[in-house]
Design brief:
The structure holds two protein chains of two kinds. Chain A is mainly alpha-helical. Helix content of chain A is about 75%, strand content about 0%. Chain A is built from eleven helices and two strands; from the N terminus they run H-H-H-H-H-H-E-E-H-H-H-H-H. The N terminus of chain A is likely disordered. The C terminus of chain B is likely disordered. The chains are: A mainly alpha, B alpha/beta. At the A-B interface, helix 1, helix 8 and helix 9 of A face helix 5 of B.
């Protein structure tokens, strides 16, 4: 009995030790990250927009619609409307803050799709090689050259028809789903290429032979030996893909492939353009979502590069 | 020891192990017969191992020596068919407890990998995954092969670390946090994870400094006695074999040149290649400075020369050597040698005069030497040496 208790205490202590080691490593990475000033700046900006995306109502009140517009048409910035109003009299600050949620959500989901497909295809193709590699890479090449807009134009009505106009999937409206799927489909290919090339190098290492000698299955080797080795690459890639996704979403919304009822930043820009805001000098209407987009993309890029220089051993020479 | 007593000892030693179902308790531990391994290249085929036979008994240590590229590692890897994808066993048998592994499919071989035969790879830094804790890497074969839980596998891994002399607290370290010697110990711990019958050491001490090398060899030696292991040690370092092995197999260009007990082969080398290898090795008691090198290179194995493959570099080479492949002859003292100088089991040892005469030390006294070289070269195939007495 006492032995059992002692064993439990031991495992609990071992677990505590494990967490302490893990925490120490995390602290080490954070300390290195803190030294990268641009990366810290990026994190701060992302944090700001994440707060906007999570609790927009607390910051600027509920989303303003046509009936709930709080000001006059095209009011220039003033204390009541810090960023002015749009053609319907809605507060632009209100729109931009609420738009953060949609832009960020689309970016996040498109990134998850991109990285998941890209990492799996990259690792499977790179590790197995041979004919499977050739087939997967030809498919990847096909998606690599696929033009985003044409695909979106074709897919949007098809998906809408298939899924039914106005229906929702996990709380995501079909029109948004189209954008997410289109971004996911067109951007995983480059991720797959990057992961594959790293996998090609790792599968030649002696420890992969050793794992085979042990009798490990291919699945086990890919999961336990290759994945942890390409993880840093995946993380750095994720952050950069996120920035790209936000940008693509903006472009697609701007050319009219977005959801009219969901004011993403691209959608706000599209409204501004169609209402003739640039022509009548309502610069606040176009500049606000524009600057928000630039800031988010820039900050994700900064964080991506900071992470890359920490996690990529080849760039870590300064340490 | 009589054959019966020998078989009995073998059964006793195996009693503690769970043998595969098909195992024959009276068969030798490992019997490799006429093994040939061929690689398919863009320009044709390369036979890296050509008709190699040897036997490993329970608790025995066999050293495989020879210069780079003569098929040592290929021989070892082919036992479990761990060859690169373009390599294949072409013929021959690899019998473990009398079960032929050469015929087994990939899936059927999994039962034997690591549980019966495991490998200590050369270059421990490369054979350990840099992003996985040492403890978890040692636990890996236990989980995969023995199907136990991660938790108990990890506990066993810590026991193994203790066994090879690594403090268990270091189990949570990553490979780069360990010293070279510790990493090699961790590799040995991993090889022992599933309690194998045979451990293959593929140059386990290469790239380690001499002190650590000695520690690793001492560890292998003690583990061998403690756990009743059988060892196959692949190395360039003849002194390592002299120190740790019972038997030695000298390979040249994919073939066995000479095989036998270490005490016999090293004191009275018969094959000219073995003699040359030993002369190319520094002798601590002699005061000479330069070592004899063997002129020339290995033959191109894509298109090997007919006859004896060592003939182009051999000081004794006769006409017959370039035409007829020498058969392997087991000499009266148990040494097997493939050389036309030794056509019968009772042929006397022929020693070459040293090439470089810089204070050559006297050879061992029980060896008949100073054979007349020119006489040998001219000699007929049937009577290669005039010393040969019936």
């Amino acid at each position: 009995m006492t032995g059992e208790v002692a064993a439990q205490v031991f495992t609990r202590r071992a677990r505590g030790e494990r967490w302490r080691i893990r925490a120490r490593q995390l602290r080490g990475i954070l300390r290195q990250f803190a030294r990268q000033r641009s990366g810290v700046l990026g994190v701060l900006i992302i944090a700001l927009f994440t707060i906007c995306a999570l609790v927009p109502d607390l910051l600027v009140g509920p989303f303003e619609s046509v009936t709930r517009a709080s000001g006059e048409k095209f009011d220039s910035p003033s204390p009541t409307h810090i960023l002015g109003t749009d053609e319907l009299g809605r507060d632009v600050l209100n729109l931009v803050v609420h738009g953060a949620r949609i832009s960020m959500a689309i970016g996040l989901m498109a990134t998850i799709i991109t990285v998941a497909i890209g990492a799996v295809i990259g690792i499977v193709a790179g590790f197995n090689g041979g004919r499977l590699d050739t087939i997967l890479m030809r498919i990847t090449d096909f998606f690599l050259i696929l033009p985003t807009f044409v695909l979106a134009l074709v897919l949007a009505p098809v998906l809408r028809e298939l899924l039914g106009e106005g229906s929702e999937f996990f709380g995501i409206r079909v029109t948004l789903l189209v954008i997410i799927v289109v971004i996911g489909i067109t951007s995983w290919a480059s991720t797959a290429r990057i992961i594959r090339s790293q996998t090609l190098s790792i599968r030649e290492r002696a420890y992969i032979d050793r794992a085979r000698a042990i009798g490990a299955s291919s699945g086990h080797i890919m999961r336990r030996h290759i994945l942890p080795n390409v993880l840093s690459l995946i993380v750095a890639n994720t952050v950069l893909v996120f920035a790209g996704s936000v940008l693509t979403e903006t472009t697609l919304s701007f050319v009219g492939l977005g959801d009219q009822l969901a004011p993403s930043w691209g959608q706000i820009l599209a409204f501004a353009q169609s209402s003739g805001a640039p022509g009548i000098g309502a610069w606040w209407y176009t500049a606000s979502p524009g600057i928000a987009i630039v800031l988010v993309v820039l900050s994700f890029t900064l964080v991506g590069h900071a992470l890359d220089s920490i996690l990529n051993p080849k760039l870590a020479g300064r340490r | 020891m009589s054959a019966e007593a020998d078989a009995l000892a073998r059964i006793v030693r195996r009693a503690g192990r769970t043998l595969p179902k098909l195992a024959d308790p009276s068969a030798p531990l490992l019997q490799v017969t006429d093994l040939s391994v061929r690689f398919t290249l863009a320009q044709g085929h390369l036979t890296a191992v050509d008709g190699v036979s040897f036997r490993l008994d329970d608790g025995e240590a066999l050293g495989i020596a020879g210069e780079s590229g003569c098929g040592k590692t290929t021989t070892a890897l082919s036992l479990l068919q761990l060859l690169p994808s373009n390599g294949r066993i072409r013929s021959g048998r690899v019998e473990l407890y009398g079960i032929d592994l050469a015929q087994k499919s990939e899936a059927a071989l999994a039962r034997y990998r690591w549980r019966e035969i495991s490998i200590v790879f050369q270059g421990a830094m490369n054979a350990l995954n840099p992003v996985i804790r040492v403890r978890d890497q040692i636990a890996e074969p236990i989980v995969i092969r023995l199907g136990v839980s991660e938790e108990s596998a990890r506990r066993r891994a810590l026991e193994l670390l203790d066994l090879v002399g690594i403090p268990t607290q270091r189990g949570g370290a990553y490979p780069h946090e360990l010293s070279g010697g510790m990493r090699q110990r961790a590799m040995i711990a991993m090889a022992l994870a599933c309690n194998p019958a045979i451990v293959i050491g593929d140059e386990p001490t290469t790239a380690l400094d001499v002190m650590v090398q000695a520690q690793i060899l001492a560890l292998l030696e003690s583990l061998r006695w403690e756990l009743g292991l059988s060892l196959i040690l692949i190395t360039h370092d003849l002194s390592v074999i002299a120190e740790t092995c019972d038997k030695v197999l000298i390979m040249y260009a994919g073939r066995v040149a000479e095989e036998g007990p270490v005490s016999r082969v090293f004191t009275a080398p018969r094959h000219p290649y073995t003699q040359a290898l030993l002369r190319a090795f520094p002798n601590i008691r002699a005061d000479r400075r330069t070592l004899d090198v063997i002129p020339g290179n290995l033959p191109d194995l894509r298109d090997p020369p007919p006859g004896c493959r060592f003939a182009p570099r051999c000081t004794f080479a006769m006409d017959v050597c370039r035409v007829v492949t020498p058969p392997e002859v087991t000499m009266a003292d148990g040494v097997r040698v493939a050389c036309h100088l030794y056509p019968t089991p009772d042929a006397a040892v022929v020693e070459a005069p040293p090439i470089a005469q810089v204070g050559a030390d006297a050879p061992d006294d029980d060896v008949d030497l100073s054979a007349d070289n020119s006489n040998l070269r001219d000699a007929d195939d049937d009577t290669p040496a005039d010393e040969v007495q019936p």
